[in-house]
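We close this part of the discussion by returning to an individual protein. Part of our work consisted of pairing the sequence of a single chain with a tokenised description of its backbone. No coordinates are needed to read the tokens, only the vocabulary itself. The amino acid sequence and the backbone structure tokens for this protein are reproduced below:
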Amino acid sequence: ISMSQLSNRPLSDTLELTSLGSEGERRVVIVGHKSPDGDCIGSALALRSYLLARGADEVSIMVVGRVPDNLLWLPGAETIHQLSPQSDLEPIRQILAQARLLLLVDFNHLGRIGNPLEGLVAEIVGKPEVRSVMIDHHPEPEMGLVDEIYSDTSACATGFLIAELLGGSESRELELYGGADMATCLLAATYTDTGLLRHGAITPKLFRTIAHLLEVGARHEEIVLRIFKSDKLNRQRLLGYIINERTTYDLDLGVAVFTLRQEDFDRFGVEPGDTEGLVNVPLDVAGIRAVAFLREQRDPDEPVKISFRSQGNLPVNEVASKLFDGGGHLNAAGAEYQGTLTDALALVWQGLRQLVQDYPGGRD
């Protein structure tokens, strides 16, 4: 773990609140990345629970985009500020102006926050009265941005990283300050970023940490039922449509690519957030090593969203970074393309063909 730019103190010490000021002044803001997923929301809510238990006067969570419906049951989710370009920003400015601790969670640079929040956060990062901390597991964190960085690219999820930084299975920190709600949020974060432990860095330490979260009171069955078995009927129909009509499978290459246009969302009555996890589905087909999902946005001026997934050691983050200035993990990456869906699709196929040529058996 790459701990801190300034010190190597434990996360529990960094999150200590008495130094922020007297009672009534211990206000915290947690910022997640745009279009938040389960790891982002679960990690943020877990930290909120922990900080309130440690004496924070107020903990606010802010994200750009809608929280997926299947995460809204998590403890504290109703308090999240979900921002859009149409949001009234004055209350947000006031909350940020009062913050004494700023936590950037599950992203590695300010550009991942999204507008209109990105500029507001940039205004307070670096202020002497605000302690700023980044907690993340994505490669290449933006060094020099915040006071302290906790980063581990080998961690399967930011939620798992937080549990480890707070002592893992060897500490009573979660029992003392987090309890069942925090443990549930951390387990939900870990399960969503690993697809219920189907991908990512699945290690013995991960299972020990999960066991500890369960001992603290994490609600495994509720997480599985409410996150992974709560599909809308329209989403199931969309999935069938994607498999049958929108996906191109190249079994010789070991690649599958699918696209969704705005008319597809309108046809099935779904939102972009309802596509969470669909990019992983083609990987269930024998012989498929890499998948790309390209999504058109409602505003034609907005860039095409691209998600990449792969099996084994095939580094799809190379395609994301080289062709689209994106990034991510070896097996899970994302990017944007300012142009047409057709042009983006051509570039994706070009990149994936070259990748498979460069790594015919994956990377050892």
